Structure to design on (416 residues):
Protein backbone atom coordinates (compact mmCIF):
# COMPACT_ATOMS: atom_id res chain seq x y z
CA UNK A 1 0.00 0.00 0.00
CA UNK A 2 1.25 3.46 -0.91
CA UNK A 3 -0.03 6.95 -0.11
CA UNK A 4 0.68 9.87 -2.43
CA UNK A 5 -0.01 13.56 -1.76
CA UNK A 6 -0.05 16.13 -4.58
CA UNK A 7 -0.25 19.78 -3.55
CA UNK A 8 -0.36 22.64 -6.05
CA UNK A 9 -0.59 26.42 -5.89
CA UNK A 10 -0.59 28.97 -8.69
CA UNK A 11 -1.29 32.69 -9.02
CA UNK A 12 -0.93 35.42 -11.62
CA UNK A 13 -1.38 39.18 -11.84
CA UNK A 14 -1.85 40.68 -15.28
CA UNK A 15 -2.20 44.15 -16.80
CA UNK A 16 -3.10 45.00 -20.37
CA UNK A 17 -4.11 47.99 -22.46
CA UNK A 18 -5.92 47.63 -25.79
CA UNK A 19 -6.17 50.41 -28.35
CA UNK A 20 -8.78 48.49 -30.31
CA UNK A 21 -9.43 51.15 -32.95
CA UNK A 22 -5.76 51.01 -34.07
CA UNK A 23 -5.62 54.76 -34.62
CA UNK A 24 -4.05 57.78 -32.87
CA UNK A 25 -7.54 58.85 -31.73
CA UNK A 26 -9.65 57.72 -28.80
CA UNK A 27 -12.29 55.62 -30.56
CA UNK A 28 -12.36 52.51 -28.40
CA UNK A 29 -9.90 52.03 -25.56
CA UNK A 30 -9.99 48.99 -23.32
CA UNK A 31 -7.85 48.60 -20.20
CA UNK A 32 -7.43 45.92 -17.51
CA UNK A 33 -6.02 47.75 -14.47
CA UNK A 34 -6.36 44.47 -12.56
CA UNK A 35 -6.65 40.89 -13.71
CA UNK A 36 -5.58 38.40 -11.05
CA UNK A 37 -6.23 34.81 -10.05
CA UNK A 38 -5.01 32.33 -7.49
CA UNK A 39 -5.77 28.65 -7.09
CA UNK A 40 -4.95 25.78 -4.76
CA UNK A 41 -5.46 22.05 -5.17
CA UNK A 42 -4.82 19.04 -2.99
CA UNK A 43 -5.06 15.39 -4.03
CA UNK A 44 -4.54 12.25 -1.95
CA UNK A 45 -4.14 8.81 -3.53
CA UNK A 46 -4.08 5.40 -1.89
CA UNK A 47 -2.84 2.59 -4.13
CA UNK A 48 -2.20 -1.06 -3.49
CA UNK A 49 -3.17 -4.65 -4.23
CA UNK A 50 -5.10 -7.47 -2.57
CA UNK A 51 -5.97 -11.11 -3.18
CA UNK A 52 -2.40 -12.16 -4.02
CA UNK A 53 -1.99 -9.24 -6.44
CA UNK A 54 -5.12 -10.12 -8.42
CA UNK A 55 -6.95 -6.98 -7.33
CA UNK A 56 -5.27 -3.58 -7.78
CA UNK A 57 -6.91 -0.44 -6.45
CA UNK A 58 -6.63 3.35 -6.52
CA UNK A 59 -8.63 5.36 -3.98
CA UNK A 60 -8.48 9.11 -3.74
CA UNK A 61 -9.86 12.49 -2.85
CA UNK A 62 -9.41 15.83 -4.58
CA UNK A 63 -10.01 19.47 -3.60
CA UNK A 64 -9.72 22.60 -5.72
CA UNK A 65 -10.31 26.26 -4.81
CA UNK A 66 -10.00 29.34 -7.00
CA UNK A 67 -10.53 33.09 -6.66
CA UNK A 68 -10.27 35.55 -9.51
CA UNK A 69 -10.82 39.28 -10.10
CA UNK A 70 -11.02 41.22 -13.35
CA UNK A 71 -11.39 45.00 -13.56
CA UNK A 72 -12.03 46.48 -17.01
CA UNK A 73 -12.16 50.15 -17.98
CA UNK A 74 -13.66 51.17 -21.35
CA UNK A 75 -13.65 54.60 -22.98
CA UNK A 76 -15.70 55.41 -26.09
CA UNK A 77 -16.24 58.95 -27.50
CA UNK A 78 -19.46 60.25 -29.01
CA UNK A 79 -19.71 63.00 -31.66
CA UNK A 80 -19.86 66.61 -30.54
CA UNK A 81 -23.19 68.30 -29.92
CA UNK A 82 -25.46 69.30 -32.82
CA UNK A 83 -23.79 71.79 -35.12
CA UNK A 84 -20.35 70.35 -34.44
CA UNK A 85 -19.52 72.83 -31.69
CA UNK A 86 -17.53 71.81 -28.66
CA UNK A 87 -15.51 68.71 -27.83
CA UNK A 88 -16.90 65.19 -28.12
CA UNK A 89 -18.53 63.61 -25.09
CA UNK A 90 -17.12 60.39 -23.70
CA UNK A 91 -18.75 57.20 -22.52
CA UNK A 92 -16.97 55.57 -19.59
CA UNK A 93 -17.58 52.07 -18.26
CA UNK A 94 -16.02 50.23 -15.33
CA UNK A 95 -16.63 46.49 -15.05
CA UNK A 96 -15.71 44.47 -11.97
CA UNK A 97 -15.92 40.68 -12.22
CA UNK A 98 -15.26 38.37 -9.28
CA UNK A 99 -15.35 34.59 -9.36
CA UNK A 100 -15.08 32.10 -6.51
CA UNK A 101 -14.97 28.39 -7.36
CA UNK A 102 -14.40 25.23 -5.40
CA UNK A 103 -14.64 21.58 -6.33
CA UNK A 104 -14.45 18.40 -4.27
CA UNK A 105 -14.22 14.85 -5.53
CA UNK A 106 -13.71 11.29 -4.36
CA UNK A 107 -12.76 8.51 -6.75
CA UNK A 108 -12.01 4.81 -6.89
CA UNK A 109 -10.70 2.45 -9.55
CA UNK A 110 -10.36 -1.33 -9.21
CA UNK A 111 -8.65 -3.70 -11.64
CA UNK A 112 -9.31 -7.42 -11.18
CA UNK A 113 -7.35 -10.14 -12.98
CA UNK A 114 -10.10 -12.57 -13.91
CA UNK A 115 -7.40 -14.83 -15.35
CA UNK A 116 -3.80 -14.49 -16.46
CA UNK A 117 -5.04 -12.94 -19.70
CA UNK A 118 -8.38 -11.30 -18.90
CA UNK A 119 -8.51 -8.07 -16.83
CA UNK A 120 -11.56 -6.07 -15.72
CA UNK A 121 -11.38 -2.44 -14.54
CA UNK A 122 -14.22 -0.48 -12.91
CA UNK A 123 -14.09 3.08 -11.62
CA UNK A 124 -16.22 5.96 -10.50
CA UNK A 125 -15.71 9.60 -9.56
CA UNK A 126 -18.14 11.74 -7.61
CA UNK A 127 -17.63 15.48 -8.05
CA UNK A 128 -19.39 18.32 -6.28
CA UNK A 129 -18.69 21.90 -7.33
CA UNK A 130 -19.84 25.34 -6.29
CA UNK A 131 -19.35 28.45 -8.37
CA UNK A 132 -20.25 32.05 -7.55
CA UNK A 133 -19.92 35.06 -9.82
CA UNK A 134 -20.69 38.72 -9.25
CA UNK A 135 -20.67 41.49 -11.83
CA UNK A 136 -20.63 45.21 -11.04
CA UNK A 137 -21.05 47.57 -14.01
CA UNK A 138 -20.57 51.31 -13.52
CA UNK A 139 -21.40 53.52 -16.48
CA UNK A 140 -21.53 57.24 -17.13
CA UNK A 141 -25.20 57.57 -16.16
CA UNK A 142 -26.08 54.27 -14.45
CA UNK A 143 -24.78 51.24 -12.59
CA UNK A 144 -25.92 47.67 -11.99
CA UNK A 145 -24.94 44.70 -9.85
CA UNK A 146 -25.70 41.06 -10.56
CA UNK A 147 -24.84 37.94 -8.58
CA UNK A 148 -25.17 34.27 -9.42
CA UNK A 149 -24.36 30.96 -7.77
CA UNK A 150 -24.33 27.43 -9.18
CA UNK A 151 -23.98 24.08 -7.41
CA UNK A 152 -23.58 20.83 -9.30
CA UNK A 153 -22.76 17.21 -8.49
CA UNK A 154 -22.18 14.31 -10.85
CA UNK A 155 -21.05 10.69 -10.95
CA UNK A 156 -18.71 9.82 -13.85
CA UNK A 157 -18.17 6.05 -14.10
CA UNK A 158 -15.81 4.07 -16.31
CA UNK A 159 -15.36 0.41 -17.25
CA UNK A 160 -12.69 -1.35 -19.26
CA UNK A 161 -11.97 -4.93 -20.32
CA UNK A 162 -8.55 -5.94 -21.64
CA UNK A 163 -7.31 -9.28 -22.96
CA UNK A 164 -3.71 -10.37 -23.50
CA UNK A 165 -3.76 -12.02 -26.90
CA UNK A 166 -0.05 -12.80 -26.49
CA UNK A 167 2.76 -12.16 -24.01
CA UNK A 168 3.49 -8.83 -25.69
CA UNK A 169 0.10 -7.84 -27.18
CA UNK A 170 -3.30 -6.89 -25.79
CA UNK A 171 -6.68 -5.61 -26.91
CA UNK A 172 -9.08 -3.51 -24.83
CA UNK A 173 -12.54 -1.94 -24.80
CA UNK A 174 -13.29 1.10 -22.61
CA UNK A 175 -16.42 3.02 -21.67
CA UNK A 176 -16.09 6.28 -19.74
CA UNK A 177 -18.09 9.37 -18.85
CA UNK A 178 -17.04 12.91 -18.01
CA UNK A 179 -18.52 16.32 -17.44
CA UNK A 180 -17.53 19.97 -17.27
CA UNK A 181 -19.59 22.13 -14.95
CA UNK A 182 -21.58 25.11 -16.11
CA UNK A 183 -20.93 28.75 -15.38
CA UNK A 184 -21.70 32.34 -16.18
CA UNK A 185 -20.82 34.16 -19.38
CA UNK A 186 -18.78 37.18 -18.43
CA UNK A 187 -19.19 39.54 -21.38
CA UNK A 188 -22.30 41.58 -22.15
CA UNK A 189 -23.14 44.53 -24.35
CA UNK A 190 -26.03 46.84 -23.60
CA UNK A 191 -28.11 46.30 -20.48
CA UNK A 192 -26.84 43.46 -18.31
CA UNK A 193 -29.74 41.05 -17.65
CA UNK A 194 -30.86 40.41 -14.11
CA UNK A 195 -30.75 37.63 -13.03
CA UNK A 196 -27.55 36.66 -14.81
CA UNK A 197 -27.97 34.00 -17.50
CA UNK A 198 -25.83 30.89 -17.18
CA UNK A 199 -24.77 28.02 -19.40
CA UNK A 200 -25.33 24.39 -18.41
CA UNK A 201 -22.83 21.58 -17.78
CA UNK A 202 -21.33 19.67 -20.68
CA UNK A 203 -21.50 15.86 -20.63
CA UNK A 204 -19.31 13.44 -22.53
CA UNK A 205 -19.60 9.71 -23.16
CA UNK A 206 -16.54 8.05 -24.67
CA UNK A 207 -16.21 4.61 -26.27
CA UNK A 208 -12.78 3.29 -27.21
CA UNK A 209 -11.31 0.07 -28.60
CA UNK A 210 -7.61 -0.42 -28.98
CA UNK A 211 -4.65 -2.70 -29.60
CA UNK A 212 -1.18 -2.44 -28.06
CA UNK A 213 1.77 -4.63 -28.97
CA UNK A 214 5.55 -4.94 -28.77
CA UNK A 215 6.95 -6.73 -31.82
CA UNK A 216 10.26 -7.87 -33.33
CA UNK A 217 11.89 -8.68 -30.00
CA UNK A 218 11.05 -5.29 -28.60
CA UNK A 219 12.27 -3.28 -31.59
CA UNK A 220 8.77 -2.16 -32.65
CA UNK A 221 5.96 -0.77 -30.53
CA UNK A 222 2.51 -0.48 -32.06
CA UNK A 223 -0.50 1.28 -30.51
CA UNK A 224 -3.80 1.72 -32.31
CA UNK A 225 -7.11 3.06 -31.01
CA UNK A 226 -10.53 3.99 -32.35
CA UNK A 227 -12.77 6.22 -30.23
CA UNK A 228 -16.24 7.75 -30.36
CA UNK A 229 -17.04 10.77 -28.18
CA UNK A 230 -20.66 11.84 -27.77
CA UNK A 231 -21.25 15.32 -26.32
CA UNK A 232 -24.45 16.54 -24.71
CA UNK A 233 -24.91 20.30 -24.29
CA UNK A 234 -21.42 20.96 -25.64
CA UNK A 235 -19.99 24.27 -24.41
CA UNK A 236 -18.55 26.61 -27.03
CA UNK A 237 -17.13 30.11 -27.16
CA UNK A 238 -19.69 32.17 -29.05
CA UNK A 239 -21.39 35.55 -29.07
CA UNK A 240 -24.99 34.51 -28.65
CA UNK A 241 -28.11 36.63 -29.07
CA UNK A 242 -30.19 34.29 -26.94
CA UNK A 243 -31.17 36.52 -24.03
CA UNK A 244 -28.02 38.64 -24.14
CA UNK A 245 -24.65 39.00 -25.80
CA UNK A 246 -22.46 36.42 -24.10
CA UNK A 247 -19.10 34.75 -24.60
CA UNK A 248 -20.13 31.21 -23.67
CA UNK A 249 -23.09 29.08 -24.71
CA UNK A 250 -24.34 25.50 -25.01
CA UNK A 251 -24.17 24.48 -28.65
CA UNK A 252 -26.18 21.27 -28.37
CA UNK A 253 -25.27 17.64 -29.08
CA UNK A 254 -22.15 16.75 -31.06
CA UNK A 255 -19.91 13.78 -31.75
CA UNK A 256 -16.27 13.23 -32.66
CA UNK A 257 -14.95 9.93 -34.04
CA UNK A 258 -11.26 9.34 -34.35
CA UNK A 259 -8.52 6.88 -35.17
CA UNK A 260 -5.01 7.09 -33.72
CA UNK A 261 -2.00 5.06 -34.80
CA UNK A 262 1.43 5.18 -33.14
CA UNK A 263 4.48 3.23 -34.32
CA UNK A 264 7.90 3.42 -32.66
CA UNK A 265 10.75 1.40 -34.16
CA UNK A 266 14.48 0.79 -33.65
CA UNK A 267 15.60 -0.37 -37.13
CA UNK A 268 19.30 -0.29 -36.26
CA UNK A 269 21.23 0.22 -33.06
CA UNK A 270 20.98 3.74 -31.56
CA UNK A 271 18.39 4.92 -34.12
CA UNK A 272 14.74 5.42 -33.12
CA UNK A 273 12.02 6.32 -35.62
CA UNK A 274 8.41 7.16 -34.85
CA UNK A 275 5.22 8.00 -36.70
CA UNK A 276 1.86 9.15 -35.32
CA UNK A 277 -1.27 9.45 -37.45
CA UNK A 278 -4.59 10.86 -36.31
CA UNK A 279 -7.92 10.97 -38.16
CA UNK A 280 -10.98 12.92 -36.96
CA UNK A 281 -14.59 13.23 -38.05
CA UNK A 282 -16.79 15.73 -36.21
CA UNK A 283 -20.54 16.29 -36.44
CA UNK A 284 -23.07 18.62 -34.83
CA UNK A 285 -25.91 16.18 -34.15
CA UNK A 286 -28.42 18.71 -32.91
CA UNK A 287 -28.55 22.41 -32.05
CA UNK A 288 -29.94 23.70 -28.80
CA UNK A 289 -32.21 26.41 -30.13
CA UNK A 290 -31.48 29.00 -32.81
CA UNK A 291 -27.93 29.96 -31.91
CA UNK A 292 -26.59 33.13 -33.55
CA UNK A 293 -22.96 34.08 -33.00
CA UNK A 294 -21.34 37.32 -34.20
CA UNK A 295 -24.45 37.94 -36.26
CA UNK A 296 -24.15 34.60 -38.07
CA UNK A 297 -26.59 31.70 -37.58
CA UNK A 298 -24.84 28.49 -36.50
CA UNK A 299 -25.83 25.66 -38.85
CA UNK A 300 -25.80 21.98 -38.10
CA UNK A 301 -23.32 21.39 -40.94
CA UNK A 302 -20.72 23.72 -39.37
CA UNK A 303 -17.38 22.24 -38.32
CA UNK A 304 -16.48 22.13 -34.66
CA UNK A 305 -13.48 24.33 -33.78
CA UNK A 306 -9.99 22.81 -33.71
CA UNK A 307 -10.94 19.53 -35.40
CA UNK A 308 -8.58 18.92 -38.35
CA UNK A 309 -9.46 15.91 -40.47
CA UNK A 310 -5.97 14.50 -40.07
CA UNK A 311 -2.67 15.05 -38.29
CA UNK A 312 0.74 13.52 -38.90
CA UNK A 313 3.95 13.60 -36.90
CA UNK A 314 7.35 12.00 -37.53
CA UNK A 315 10.27 11.70 -35.13
CA UNK A 316 13.86 10.57 -35.52
CA UNK A 317 16.46 10.26 -32.76
CA UNK A 318 20.03 9.04 -33.02
CA UNK A 319 22.48 8.46 -30.17
CA UNK A 320 26.22 8.72 -30.82
CA UNK A 321 28.31 7.01 -28.10
CA UNK A 322 31.79 8.52 -27.53
CA UNK A 323 34.92 6.70 -26.45
CA UNK A 324 34.92 8.61 -23.16
CA UNK A 325 31.52 7.21 -22.22
CA UNK A 326 29.72 10.42 -23.01
CA UNK A 327 27.05 10.53 -25.70
CA UNK A 328 25.54 12.93 -28.17
CA UNK A 329 21.83 12.77 -28.96
CA UNK A 330 20.37 14.15 -32.18
CA UNK A 331 16.60 14.55 -32.50
CA UNK A 332 14.22 15.97 -35.10
CA UNK A 333 10.42 16.24 -34.99
CA UNK A 334 8.15 16.99 -37.92
CA UNK A 335 4.39 17.59 -37.65
CA UNK A 336 1.71 18.36 -40.19
CA UNK A 337 -1.92 19.30 -39.59
CA UNK A 338 -4.89 19.66 -41.92
CA UNK A 339 -6.84 22.93 -42.03
CA UNK A 340 -9.45 23.70 -39.36
CA UNK A 341 -11.60 26.52 -38.03
CA UNK A 342 -10.81 28.20 -34.71
CA UNK A 343 -14.40 29.37 -34.11
CA UNK A 344 -17.85 27.88 -34.41
CA UNK A 345 -18.92 30.58 -36.90
CA UNK A 346 -16.64 28.98 -39.56
CA UNK A 347 -15.79 32.33 -41.13
CA UNK A 348 -12.93 32.59 -43.58
CA UNK A 349 -11.11 34.86 -41.10
CA UNK A 350 -10.94 31.99 -38.59
CA UNK A 351 -9.85 29.29 -41.03
CA UNK A 352 -6.35 28.07 -40.24
CA UNK A 353 -4.72 26.49 -43.27
CA UNK A 354 -2.69 23.32 -43.39
CA UNK A 355 0.71 23.88 -41.81
CA UNK A 356 3.95 22.04 -41.09
CA UNK A 357 6.37 22.41 -38.19
CA UNK A 358 9.95 21.16 -37.77
CA UNK A 359 11.85 21.11 -34.47
CA UNK A 360 15.39 19.88 -33.84
CA UNK A 361 17.73 19.40 -30.88
CA UNK A 362 21.25 18.23 -30.08
CA UNK A 363 22.28 17.19 -26.54
CA UNK A 364 25.63 16.27 -25.03
CA UNK A 365 25.57 14.10 -21.87
CA UNK A 366 28.64 13.58 -19.67
CA UNK A 367 30.12 10.08 -19.13
CA UNK A 368 28.67 9.82 -15.61
CA UNK A 369 25.28 11.12 -16.81
CA UNK A 370 25.20 13.85 -14.17
CA UNK A 371 25.23 16.86 -16.47
CA UNK A 372 24.22 17.75 -20.00
CA UNK A 373 23.87 20.72 -22.30
CA UNK A 374 22.46 21.30 -25.73
CA UNK A 375 20.78 23.42 -28.36
CA UNK A 376 17.10 23.43 -29.35
CA UNK A 377 15.55 24.84 -32.49
CA UNK A 378 11.78 25.32 -32.60
CA UNK A 379 9.87 26.00 -35.81
CA UNK A 380 13.13 25.90 -37.73
CA UNK A 381 11.24 26.18 -41.04
CA UNK A 382 9.76 29.48 -39.77
CA UNK A 383 6.17 28.42 -40.49
CA UNK A 384 3.68 31.27 -40.17
CA UNK A 385 0.25 30.46 -38.74
CA UNK A 386 -2.01 31.31 -35.80
CA UNK A 387 -2.72 29.37 -32.63
CA UNK A 388 -6.17 30.96 -32.47
CA UNK A 389 -8.33 33.54 -34.23
CA UNK A 390 -11.39 35.25 -32.81
CA UNK A 391 -13.83 37.46 -34.68
CA UNK A 392 -14.89 40.84 -33.28
CA UNK A 393 -18.07 41.47 -35.26
CA UNK A 394 -18.89 44.90 -33.84
CA UNK A 395 -15.61 46.32 -35.21
CA UNK A 396 -15.38 43.99 -38.21
CA UNK A 397 -12.02 42.76 -36.94
CA UNK A 398 -10.40 39.42 -36.24
CA UNK A 399 -7.88 39.03 -33.42
CA UNK A 400 -5.25 36.31 -33.77
CA UNK A 401 -2.44 34.86 -31.70
CA UNK A 402 0.47 34.01 -34.02
CA UNK A 403 2.86 31.20 -33.18
CA UNK A 404 6.42 32.02 -32.35
CA UNK A 405 8.73 32.32 -35.35
CA UNK A 406 11.95 30.37 -35.70
CA UNK A 407 13.60 30.33 -32.26
CA UNK A 408 16.78 28.81 -30.84
CA UNK A 409 17.68 28.20 -27.22
CA UNK A 410 20.46 26.63 -25.18
CA UNK A 411 20.20 24.72 -21.95
CA UNK A 412 22.40 23.24 -19.23
CA UNK A 413 21.22 20.64 -16.72
CA UNK A 414 22.94 19.14 -13.67
CA UNK A 415 21.66 16.08 -11.85
CA UNK A 416 22.08 16.41 -8.10
Amino acid sequence: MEIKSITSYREFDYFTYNDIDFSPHVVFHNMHPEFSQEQFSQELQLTGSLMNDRLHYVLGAYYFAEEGTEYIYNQIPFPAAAGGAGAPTYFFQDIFRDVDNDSKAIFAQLTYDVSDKLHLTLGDRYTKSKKSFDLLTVRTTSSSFQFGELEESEHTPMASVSYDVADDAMVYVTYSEGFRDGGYPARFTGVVPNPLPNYDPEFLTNYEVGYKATLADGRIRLNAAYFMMDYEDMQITATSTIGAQTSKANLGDASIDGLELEILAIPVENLTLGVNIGLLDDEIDGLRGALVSSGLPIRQDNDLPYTPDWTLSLTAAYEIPLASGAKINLRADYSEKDDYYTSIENTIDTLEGEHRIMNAAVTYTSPDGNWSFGLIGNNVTDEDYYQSRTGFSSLDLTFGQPVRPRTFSAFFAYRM
Notes: The radius of gyration is 27 Å.
